Structures are given as structure tokens and as C-alpha cells.
Automatic annotation (TrEMBL):
Keyword terms of this UniProt record: Hydrolase, Magnesium, Metal-binding, Nucleotide metabolism, Nucleotide-binding
Uppermost EC category: hydrolase
EC nos: 3.6.1.66
Name recorded for this polypeptide: dITP/XTP pyrophosphatase
Function text: Pyrophosphatase that catalyzes the hydrolysis of nucleoside triphosphates to their monophosphate derivatives, with a high preference for the non-canonical purine nucleotides XTP (xanthosine triphosphate), dITP (deoxyinosine triphosphate) and ITP. Seems to function as a house-cleaning enzyme that removes non-canonical purine nucleotides from the nucleotide pool, thus preventing their incorporation into DNA/RNA and avoiding chromosomal lesions.
Catalyses which reaction(s): dITP + H2O = dIMP + diphosphate + H(+); ITP + H2O = IMP + diphosphate + H(+); XTP + H2O = XMP + diphosphate + H(+)
Organism: Microvirga puerhi
Similarity comment text for this entry: Belongs to the HAM1 NTPase family.
HAMAP family reported in the protein's UniProt record: Non_canon_purine_NTPase
Domain of life where this protein originates: Bacteria
Subunit comment: Homodimer.
Active site residues per record: 74 (proton acceptor)
InterPro entries: dITP/XTP_pyrophosphatase (IPR020922), ITPase-like_fam (IPR029001), RdgB/HAM1 (IPR002637)
Residues where substrate binds: 13-18, 75, 160-163, 183, 198-199
Length: 214
């Protein structure tokens, strides 16, 4: 049975965009979320071979360093025509400067090398693996995915990362054109709450198992 999460949680990230999303998702549950970046924690080496493994590495490192429960999201963009790339290397493609426009350019460049035009196979999906780790070593894993396609040129300035080039199925807008409320907002008053983004979908399962409304 999943362990309840209350009080204060460390979000094991140095990404302000990701922290902002997680704080908004936790807000209805009265859980205070602070980031590893704010606490000056180092970034551990992500040596896993799956999103869930890398999320666990970051969550356990933050939990051990702070004595608090820690949540880590490891997520990425997987493009079908690129054999799932950038995948685990989604952040690495942005380089040390975290230049995600350059990363999006690389995605498009690799697609062009393979002869993939606007009419070709541009299917892609985002994956999010959320791991909560406690200082005693206990952990919980929750995953979410959203399917769509990559577009060029990128559109919109909302969100972060590859959002401006990802258009979810059933939408004419990219994630970069959707407000944060439309992208990962959840109506908790609904008997069966729904979510759009991969991170929000993973959070739905986390909330069902570990959280109670404030």
C-alpha cells in the first residue's frame, strides 16, 4: 500500500520550470515543496538506463541529504522516427547551457537527415517517471505518458524544454502555446479527474496513492 505524503517535500530538481509545475500540482494538498536547487544540493550522476532509475537516483540522494521525503521527475521526449531519441538524453541534447532551442533544432535536423518531412512520421511522446523516496529508503514510483507529434518551427513561449515543438494528439496547439492550467491543470472536484501532460498524468496516480486534499 502506498505511503502517505504530508508536510514538506524536496523536489529533486534544479529546473525552475519543473519546480513551478510541481508546486502548482501539490498546492491543493497543503504540501510545501522546495527544490534541491534552493537547498544547494548537488546534482547526482544519472547513471540509470530507464527514466524510473534516474528518478530514483535523484530522489534518494535528496532524501538522504535532507532527511525529508523527496520527489524526483525524470522525463523525456521520445521521437518514433529517431528510434526513441532523445529519450534519456533529452536534457543532454540542450548542452551545458540548457539551450533547448538548440535541442529542438537538433531534433529537426535529425529528422531531416532521415528524410522525415512535415507529412512524414513525426509521432512522439513525452514520458514522466515520478519517484518519491523517504530517508529510510522506501520509495514509490508513478508514471505518465502523453502522445502527439513534433512540429517545426516551434510555436509558443509557455512551458519549458521541448514544449514549443510538441503538439499533443487532439490539439492544434503545442505545449508551448497552452497555458499552464490547460497543460497540467487538474479539476480535483471531478469524480474521475483527467490530466493532459505526462507529468500531470503521473501526478494523478501519485495523488491517488499518497495524498489527501488539504
Amino acid at each position: 500500500m502506498p505511503r502517505p505524503l504530508t508536510g514538506k517535500v524536496v523536489i529533486a530538481t534544479h529546473n525552475p520550470g519543473k519546480l513551478r509545475e510541481m508546486q502548482e500540482l501539490f498546492a491543493p494538498f497543503g504540501v510545501e515543496a522546495v527544490s534541491a536547487g534552493e537547498l544547494g544540493l548537488p546534482v547526482p550522476a544519472e547513471t540509470g538506463h530507464m527514466f524510473s532509475e534516474n528518478a530514483a537516483i535523484k530522489a534518494h540522494a535528496a532524501a538522504q541529504a535532507t532527511g525529508l521525503p523527496a520527489l524526483s521527475d525524470d522525463s523525456g521526449l521520445c521521437v518514433d522516427a529517431l528510434d526513441g531519441a532523445p529519450g534519456l538524453f533529452t536534457a543532454d541534447w540542450a548542452g551545458p547551457a540548457k539551450d533547448f532551442f538548440a535541442a529542438m533544432q537538433r531534433v529537426e535536423r535529425e529528422l531531416q537527415k532521415r528524410g522525415v518531412t512535415e507529412a512524414g512520421n513525426r509521432k512522439a511522446h513525452f514520458v514522466s517517471a515520478l519517484v518519491i523516496a523517504w530517508p529510510d529508503g522506501h520509495e514509490e514510483l508513478f508514471e505518465g505518458r502523453v502522445f502527439g507529434k513534433v512540429v517545426w518551427p516551434p510555436r509558443g513561449t509557455q512551458g519549458f524544454g521541448y514544449d514549443p515543438m510538441f503538439q499533443p494528439d487532439g490539439f492544434t496547439e503545442t505545449f508551448g502555446e497552452l497555458s499552464s492550467e490547460r497543460k497540467h491543470g487538474i479539476d480535483w472536484s471531478e469524480p474521475a479527474p483527467q490530466a493532459l501532460s505526462h507529468r500531470a498524468r503521473a501526478f494523478l496516480t501519485l495523488a491517488a496513492g499518497c495524498l489527501q486534499k488539504a
